[in-house]
């Protein structure tokens, strides 16, 4: 099969012939329809973030496709089924999996990191981790549910605990942040989108934001939001991964507010311990999505409560995958999410 091979950082992916994987009795072989292009992959390529499996490695962790072979122990799938593969596979038996927190599984396996991913014509996965993709969801565009939508869904539902009428601030309206906006709006939140780009804020309005704040045009974004909300937001999500924006998000909250950190940063942040204690503030991290949440998320996408197809603004064939990463590097404001079609 053809695959885009990662041979190491600071070099383009190479399109090469690669052995088609063979399945085990409990696995399925999937012909990849599409795979989302994610900043996580760019961290491996550009920023020296190491992968667990040493190169050569196939990157890509947002796949959808069609089953072409099933193992002899598989009962719930057949050849021809349209499927979605989650970004992360869980063990199901560790303490965290057994207590409902599979997204922080002690033995998690990530496509394109621990094992070969989906920038390829075929991929294998344990049948227990695979989800049926309804006909109402476009097969190619549906791939981004695996991470770009599922990660925000978990952040909003389980970590932010957004309820109807909650005032919700979303700091950062890129490819993940825009879905925090639309999922929070779908849950009934009154959403305030925050970014430095007017174009991204326009996207945010299209996907459900009720108000927008451009931080490059106001002296103090936190003060502006406190004025707008009459004292501060109930919940704030930071979806960039910078100490400054995490601190800004915390500053937008009212007493008893909740900060959810979705963006990754290796740097320390400075938050007021006095405010956290005296005002009973909460600070939570959010990582990935639990497998148990995918069926409900897929159903929300099926009925159109969460929009999928409109999020995909560019498609690239496999042999143009490096162009897709160049687009990601460019921070093009007209690009929300790109996918690669093997």
Overall pLDDT = 96
- Helix/strand-derived category reads alpha/beta
Largest sheet: 7 strands, mixed
Parts with pLDDT < 50 across at least 5 consecutive residues: none
N→C terminal distance: 10 Å
Helix share bin: 10-25%
Second-tier CATH architecture of the largest domain: Alpha-Beta Complex
N-to-C order of helices and strands: EEEHEEEEHEEEHEHEHEHEHEHEHEHE
What is the number of E strands? 18
In the CATH scheme, what's the topology name of the largest domain? Answer: Quinone Oxidoreductase, Chain A, domain 1
Highest-level CATH class of the largest domain? Alpha Beta
The CATH superfamily of the largest domain bears the name: Medium-chain alcohol dehydrogenases, catalytic domain
Number of helices: 10
Query: Roughly how many Å is the radius of gyration?
Result: 20 Å
How would you characterize this protein structure?
- This protein is α/β, with parallel strands linked by helices and 342 residues long.
- The protein folds into two domains: 2-147 and 289-341, Alpha-Beta Complex (Quinone Oxidoreductase, Chain A, domain 1), CATH 3.90.180; 150-285, 3-Layer(aba) Sandwich (Rossmann fold).
- The protein is 25% helix and 26% strand.
- The protein has helices spanning 39-46, 95-98, 150-159, 177-186, 198-206, 221-229, 243-251, 273-278, 294-302, 321-330; strands spanning 2-6, 14-17, 27-36, 57-58, 63-70, 82-84, 88-89, 109-110, 122-126, 131-132, 167-171, 190-195, 211-214, 233-238, 253-261, 282-285, 312-317, 337-341.
- Strands 3, 5, 6, 9, 10, 17 and 18 form a seven-stranded mixed sheet that branches. Strands 13-12-11-14-15-16 form a six-stranded parallel sheet, with helices on both faces. It has a three-stranded antiparallel sheet with strand order 2-1-4, with no helix packed on it.
- α10 links the parallel β17 (312-317) and β18.
- α3 packs across α4 (177-186).
- It is globular.
- The N and C termini lie close together (10 Å).
């Amino acid at each position: 099969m053809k695959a885009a091979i990662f041979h190491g950082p600071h070099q383009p992916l190479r399109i090469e012939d690669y052995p088609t994987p063979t399945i085990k009795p409990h696995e399925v072989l999937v012909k990849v329809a599409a795979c989302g292009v994610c900043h996580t992959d760019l961290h491996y390529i550009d920023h020296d973030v190491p992968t667990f499996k040493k190169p050569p490695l196939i990157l890509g962790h947002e796949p959808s496709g069609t089953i072409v072979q099933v193992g002899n122990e598989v009962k719930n799938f057949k050849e021809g089924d349209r499927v979605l593969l989650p970004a992360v596979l869980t063990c199901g038996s560790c303490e965290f999996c057994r207590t409902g927190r599979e997204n922080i599984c002690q033995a998690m396996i990530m496509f394109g990191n621990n094992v070969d991913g989906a920038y390829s014509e075929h991929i294998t996965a344990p049948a227990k981790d695979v989800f049926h993709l309804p006909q109402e969801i476009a097969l190619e565009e549906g791939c981004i549910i695996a991470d770009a939508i599922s990660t925000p869904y978990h952040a909003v539902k389980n970590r932010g605990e957004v309820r109807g009428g909650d005032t919700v601030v979303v700091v950062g309206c890129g490819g993940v942040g825009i879905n925090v906006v639309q999922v929070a709006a779908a849950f009934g939140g009154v959403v305030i989108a925050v970014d430095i780009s007017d174009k991204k804020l326009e996207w945010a309005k299209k996907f459900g934001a009720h108000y927008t704040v451009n931080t490059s045009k106001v002296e103090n974004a936190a003060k502006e939001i406190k004025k707008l909300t009459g004292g501060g937001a109930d919940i704030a999500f930071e979806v960039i991964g910078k100490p400054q924006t995490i601190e800004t998000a915390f500053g937008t909250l009212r007493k008893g507010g909740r900060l959810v950190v979705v963006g990754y940063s290796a740097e320390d942040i400075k938050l007021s311990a006095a405010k956290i204690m005296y005002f009973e503030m909460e600070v939570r991290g959010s990582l990935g999505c639990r497998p148990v949440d995918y069926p409900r998320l897929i159903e929300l996408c099926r009925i159109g409560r969460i929009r999928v197809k409109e999020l995909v603004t560019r498609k690239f064939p496999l042999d143009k995958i490096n162009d897709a990463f160049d687009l990601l590097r460019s921070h093009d404001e007209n690009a929300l999410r790109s996918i690669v079609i093997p």
